[in-house]
Amino acid sequence: MGWGGRGGFWAPPPPPGPGPSCPAPPSHPQASFSRPPQVRMGEYNEKKETCGTICLKYLLFTFNCCFWLAGLAVMAVGVWTLALKSDYISLLASNTYLATAYILVVAGAVVMVTGVLGCCATFKERRNLLRLYFLLLFVIFVLEVIAGILAYIYYQQLSFELKDNLKNTMVQKYQQPGHEGVTGAVDSLQQKFKCCRSNNSQDWQESTWIQSGEAEGRKFPDSCCKTVVRGCGQRDHASNIYKVEGGCITKLERFIQEHLRIIGAVGLGIACVQIFGMIVTCCLYKSLKLEHY
Description:
Layout: H1 43-47, H2 51-84, H3 96-124, H4 127-173, H5 180-192, H6 208-212, H7 247-292
Helix pairs in contact: 2-3, 2-7, 3-4, 3-7, 4-7
């Protein structure tokens, strides 16, 4: 028995009961973290582009647009040579002039296709397309250098070729069966450049046509006349016949040399521009390769 109060019995404390449960600690707002989304390896790297890569892409795209226009210009020069300047090809001994024009046409067409391929390779970032693009650039570069070199070589030997060949062509083939192209070329040459004879005053007197009697008394073709009428070549007078120092050789040589300068300048000029395109292509290819890894 225990005592209660001051004078009573003391009572033992009640046994400990289960009591209230401990409250859960408050949740802190920073205690819960959401799990970051899973990113597959390589997914981020494929979309990542450095500033240098972007600049190279747009630089190469701009180059390809200009390159496509340059290809159109090259092909136009080649077609112009074949269509409008080919009247006198039959008067030349070699096919170098004609081959140069064909090379420009082929090179121009390939340049235009290559320009489109270059744009696709640039924005699709396909390294295999870039390799093909670089290879085509190199092939075109070689073709244009060859065209330029041929034009330069032919430019140097043109004078000797004309002196050796033009007189024989005019004397032996003019107005002869099977040589209608030569006849038309000679008539066009003498009328356009206002000249007569290949080199000296006796050239037409040696002509097979004049000596055969088919010329009907003509001393010169009617195309030598300042005013062309049938039979006008029967009268040899300065008021009637073109008399130019050096004959038609000088005129034709100057005409072809001027055109060869255009062909050579176009071919070599665009070839130099292509060097820049090949350098940019290599830089972009290397940049894409580094980002891939």
